[in-house]
Amino acid sequence: MHKDAHGLDLTTASAEAAAAFDRAVEGYISFRADMPQRLAALAAADPDFAMAHVMRGYMLMLSFAAANITLAADCARAARACAAGATAREQAHIAALEAWAANRTGKAIAIWEQILAEHPHDVLALRLAHYAHFWTGRADMMLASILRVEPRWSAALPAWGTLLACRCFAHEECGHYLEAELAGRAALDVDPGDLWAAHGLAHVMEMQGRVTEGIAHIGAFRAHWDGANNVRHHLYWHEAMFHLERGDFARVLALYDHEFRDLDAPLTRAVPDLYIDIQNGASMLFRLSLRGVDVGDRWAEIADKAEARIGDCASAFTLPHWMMALAATGRFAAGERMLAAMRDYARGEGDTPALVARYALPVCEAVLARGRGEYGAAVAAMRPALGGMHRMGGSHAQQDVLEQLFLDCALRAGMEADARMLLERVAGRHKVPPSRRAAYAKAAREVGFVS
Q1: How far is 380 from 179, CA to CA, in rounded Å?
Q2: In this structure, is the dihedral angle defined by the CA atoms of residues 31, 257, 275 and 238, taken in order, positive or negative?
Q3: Is 401:287 a contact under the CB 8 Å cutoff?
Q4: Which of 299, 334, 338, 333 is nearest to 320 (CA)?
Q5: Whose CB has fewer CB within 10 Å in the chain, the N or C terminal residue?
Q6: What pairs with residue 391 in β-bridges?
Q7: Residue 143 and residue 26: Cα distance in Å, rounded?
Q8: Are 322 and 304 in contact (CB under 8 A)?
Q9: Cα(351)–Cα(386) distance, rounded to whole angstroms?
């Protein structure tokens, strides 16, 4: 038996496997693009190491792709077959993977939180709980999770910067911008290449309307992102959001074409088929279209992927983004097929089907209705979901595109009461009033909204 970088027991006789496990965990929490190679090295070092199978299963689940969920369940079975001598903590990780792959995200979260209660230095459980709280729309629980373990951490631990970065983002999503900024800057002092800390600070600046600082922030740290995975694309999405606020549409499109993807890698000139990249691309094109910007044929590549993924509902928040592409390209028949597949999925068991039924389905119905010019129908479909659609996951900055969708439909339908209601929602959450935000100022003037 060996120990990991934080002193926790690992049930493997191989020192090489223990070191490979640490390297895989480090790659996960620092968003490394070479995770496949790290996982392969871990598997080769000890094929009977239960946590090697768990680690691969977790990474498959993090892709939010239905095809990978079956593979993750296979990993859980392989881990269970190797678990006779595993520690209770390792057994709990296997149970968490089993629950997650069975669409019981809430149960997986509860297991990770129990692991943290007993082993607060388990950075894998820490980061997975942080991720899952976020993608189930529970910013309050995301923050509580970090605050529970933080008193038992210190700068002497290898992943101290990761804890600070998670504290930054959790505070930001709870609206605590001062606390978030302090934690984010402390994390970047530990490691200027910490993408999650840079990401959290970008969110703080977005929510405070600090456009000039936001652009400078991305520029100051981008040199440290070599070797990073798709989270790097999302940071450039944040930069594009700042330029969009300035009305610099040419710069936004340049970032879309050159930084929302890896142009130096083979076969990746298109927007990658990963949930965060689809969200980046579709939401930006939709925002541009609302501003009257001609985006050319850029929707087509996302629409092609959307058609290929009909029936894949693993990421509730990605579904409206798929539908945006189908509607923008006039693929209404495909949109109807997507809705039918979502209804079938929503009748299933588990946590995500419930989210799809209550929130993703009505929002997607609204997106498709808007594409057909049925603005009143779009408002009626989406109105019941407004109060809870954050449960699909996504940050305040990401969810904002759905609020812009509703506002646009309400204005086009002449439904002023709904438009005012939406502006009140936005004013209540965002520090910058609608009258000073590019996406909302015109609407605020039209309905006489003063915040």
Answers
A1: 39
A2: positive
A3: yes
A4: 338
A5: N
A6: none
A7: 22
A8: no
A9: 19
Are 302 and 255 within 8 A, CB to CB? no
Nearest to 358 by CA among 373, 370, 343: 343
What whole-number distance in Å separates Cα of residue 6 and Cα of residue 390? 34
2-3/9-10 β-pairing: antiparallel
| pLDDT-derived band at 429, boundaries 50, 70, 90 | confident
Question: 27: which 2 tokens?
Answer: 């790659």
How far apart are the C-alpha atoms of 228 and 191, rounded to whole Å? 14
pLDDT for 261: 87
Torsion of CA 282, 286, 289, 291, to 10 degrees: -130
Q: Return the closest-CA partner of residue 9 out of 159, 152, 121.
A: 121
Domains in the chain, CATH or no CATH each? 1-134 (1.25.40), 298-451 (1.25.40)
* Joined tokens for residue 116: 């943290």
The DSSP code for 228 is B
Of the CA atoms within 13 Å of residue 118, those in its CB half-sphere come to 12
In angstroms, the CA 4 to CA 20 distance is 10
Amino acid sitting at position 309: R
Rounded to an integer, what is the distance from CA 39 to the centroid of its chain? 22
What 3-state class would DSSP assign to 125?
A: helix
What is the residue type of 252?
V
The answer for residues whose C-beta is within 8 angstroms of residue 267's C-beta and 6 or more apart is: none
User: Crossing angle for the helix pair 35-45 and 50-61, nearest 10 degrees?
Assistant: 160
Structure token digits, residue 50: 């239960």
Contacts of 447 (CB under 8 A, 6+ apart): 411, 416, 419, 420, 423
Cα distance between residue 321 and residue 107, in whole Å:
27
- How large is the average pLDDT for residues 236-255? 98
pLDDT attached to residue 1? 82
Residue 304, C-beta contacts closer than 8 angstroms, at least 6 positions apart: none
